[in-house]
Amino acid sequence: MSDRIPLPMPFGWFRVAESSDLAAGEVQSIHYLGKDFVLFRTAQGEASVMDAYCPHLGAHLGYGGEVVGDSIRCPFHHWRFDCSGACVEVPYAKRIPPKARIKTYPTCEKNGIIFIWHHPHDEAPRWEVPEIPELTAEVGWLDIVYHTARVRSHPQEMAENVVDSAHFRYVHGTPDIPEKTFTFDGHIMRAFQGLTFSTPDGELKGSVNIESHGGSIGITRFEGIGETLLVITGTPVDEELHESVIRFRFRVVDGDEATAQALGDAFIAEVTRQHSQDVPIWEHKKFHETPVLCDGDGPIHSIRKYYQQFYA
Q: β-strand 188-199 against 35-41: which pairing, if any?
C-alpha cells in the first residue's frame, strides 16, 4: 500500500507477456506484482513463470539462464529446474538437495496472451481466463493494434472510470453524460450502453458491451458504425505503478479493409486521447475511502464492493 492510495495489491490472473513475444527456448526477465520473475518457453512450447532467483546461491535465471528441453538451467552452476520448480539436475553432485526448488506460478496462455495467477497466500485459481475468439480470428478482422501505458495508479482507481459516467463529459468533452446499466456477478462485472449514430441514411442504433473479469481483464465490444473489439489487460508493476496493454481490433465488412482502417484509426485516436487526459488525474489524485458523492456519480460504491473480493 501507499499513503496516497492505501489499497492492497489485488489477486487474480495478470498478463505478463504476449504469446508472440516469447519464442520456444527463449528466457525473459520480467518484473510485475512487486516481484522479479523469470519467464521462459520450453522446447515443447510450454510457457512457464517462476521466481527469478536460484535457491542455490541466488543467481538470477533471467540473465544467462538457458532452456534445456523442458527445463531452465541456472547460468551460475548449471542447476536445472523443470516447470514445476523442482530441481532435476545438479551436474557435479551425487544427489539433489531436497530443498532445491523454485516457486512457480499457475500460468495460462489464451487469446495470444500469457497470464499468471497471483495470490498473496498462494491460493489456487478461483476462475478461468475467458476466451476472446475475436483476438485469434484469422479472417474477417484487421491485425491487432497495441497501445501500452504505465501509470502511477492502482487498478481499482482506474476501474472506477468505467462507472464514473460524469467524467466523460467534464474530462473528455463528450456531448452527453453516457447512461450505462451495470450488473455484478461474482468475479464478472458487465455494463451496457445504447448508442445512436446520425448517418446520411438516418439514425443507426448501436451498443457498447463491457465485461470485466477479475478486475484485470476488460473486454469491450462496440457495434454500430463498424464493429470494434477493445481488450485491456492490467497488471500492477508494484504498489503504485500499473501497466495497461490495450488491444484494438476492427472487423472488415464485405472485404472493405480501407473503411475498417479509417474507422479504426479514428477510434484509436479518440481512445488514446481520452486515456492521456485521464493519466494526470490518476497520477495525482488521492483515494478517499468515504468520498462525498452526489446522485449523478454512478455506482461508485458498487464497483468498490466488487473489487473487495480481489483482496486477501
A: unpaired
> Does the pTM of the predicted model rise above 0.85?
yes
Q: Could you tell me which residues come within 8 angstroms of residue 11 by beta carbon, excluding any fewer than 6 positions away? A: 117, 118, 119, 120, 123, 310, 311, 312
Cβ–Cβ under 8 Å, residues 217 and 130? yes
DSSP 60: B
Contact 15, 114 (CB under 8 A): yes
CATH code (residue 293): 3.90.380.10
Between CA 60 and CA 190 the distance in angstroms is 41
Same domain, 48 and 156: no
Q: Tell whether 128 is covered by a domain.
A: no
Q: Which residues contact 98 (CB under 8 A, 6 or more apart)?
A: none
Whether 275 and 149 have beta carbons less than 8 Å apart is answered as: yes
pLDDT < 50 regions, the chain: none
Q: Quick: pLDDT tens for 241-273.
A: 999 999 999 999 999 999 999 999 999 999 999
* φ/ψ (deg, to 5) at 15: -70, 135
Residues 6 or more apart whose CB falls under 8 angstroms from that of 39 comprise: 16, 17, 22, 27, 28, 29, 30, 47, 48, 49, 62, 114
Structural domain including 226 reads 134-308
Q: Where are the alpha helices (DSSP H) in 153-299?
A: 155-163, 166-170, 257-284
